[in-house]
Amino acid sequence: MRRFLEAGRLTSPRGIKGEVRFDCWCDSPEFLIGVSRFYLDDKGERFLTVKQYRPTIPSILFEGYEDRTAAGALAGKIIYFDRNDVTLEEGVCFNDDLLSLPVFDVDSGEQIGVLERIDEGVMNDFYFVRGEKNSYYIPVRDEFVKEISLEAGIKVKLIEGLEL
Fold first, then answer.
1. In this structure, what CATH number is given to the domain that contains residue 73?
2. pLDDT tens, position by position, 118-132
3. What confidence tier does 164 reach under pLDDT thresholds 50, 70, 90?
4. Which residues form the domain of 119?
5. Which of 39, 69, 85, 106 has a C-alpha 20 to 30 A away from that of 21?
6. Which candidate, 91, 89, 90, 133, places its Cα nearest to that of 110?
């Protein structure tokens, strides 16, 4: 499991005091309330200390970047958070932890492939499952995704039209 996960992208300065607009890639900007450091790399070697975080806009002001020019240098950067800095509810996991899990047909019990990626959709996300013979595009909805276990894999209900 990766320790440092993508939080989103810093887009452009906002105002004259150094705030940077933030395109959050988490479930919501509120998820990151309380995170005091973001990282400029996925190894956690270069960090930015949060001075102010506004999830409603969303935007971030970092220590040492308190003017528009300095904040502009951060535009376009992907920032990461440390998974140890957030608390997940019971039974919830990061999407990143699901990648490469085996996926099984709930009816037959057979493995149909492994979860290769998770694509964001308008109404829901989609699991792209690559099998040896076929690939599947499965909506992340209760009627299709029946069970998720980091130890045992993912069980899905297949219907006609999910196979690519």
1. 2.40.30.60
2. 998 889 999 999 999
3. low
4. 95-156
5. 85
6. 133
